[in-house]
Fold this protein.
Amino acid sequence: MLTMFILKKIVSQFLFPIFLSFEFSLIGLVLLWFTKRQRAGKVLVSIGLLLMLALSYGAVSNRLLKPLERKYEPYERVLARQAYADSLKKIKFIVVLGAGHQSDPNIPTSSQLDEDALARLVEGIRIYRKHRGSKLILSGGSIFDPIPHAYVLARVAQELGVSESDIIIEPWSKDTRDEALLIKPIVGPERFILVTSASHMSRSMALFQNLGLNPIPAPAGYLAKDEQRLSISSFFPSARNLRKAERVFYEYLGITWARLRDQVPE
């Protein structure tokens, strides 16, 4: 299981935007320098550079990311509907899926969490405070870090005022599929609120529902945002936009992998 997970992570790196652009350009340079296939080399170098340039602009990366992030509406809108208001008052569990962290005792615990993890946790705590008597389920195991991710989430949650008695830790999962399998015995058939990154919500909902679970989506950490007005940065490429494009590649690769393994419906 762990070997397959690590292999999946390694292979996916070769298909992410930056490395993919680098691959095209590198192969093109090899052709230009060491073969007579000059035209093919120029084409590949051009594809690599243009791919990176295009994905570095918000107009492109936002357009690719929005369909993933906006598939499910924010939890606040669901809560506002009278048809759901009464049933949502009975919610017992708010599940926060893990993202990433890097243990470093020399910095605050909150700074050890990556941006996605912190956004998910803050949204989970915000929703938890709307449901008196609910429990916060924090998920995520240990892969490349000695401390399981769920423990770091729990420490930060307690520092932000969540009672230890209201926290349930799931520290064994390696990926989203694992999280669904390990959380299922905790929540049972009851409806619960599922908090994860907006771009990750589509895959997460499919994985959880395919196991017969009843999650209510609460997307967090939106990256593709509508600009109210143009700014100087709108006209220049940026690494942040490349990160958005990487998120798109990551999620669609994850969905494809899950479908190949019959973990989600076609």
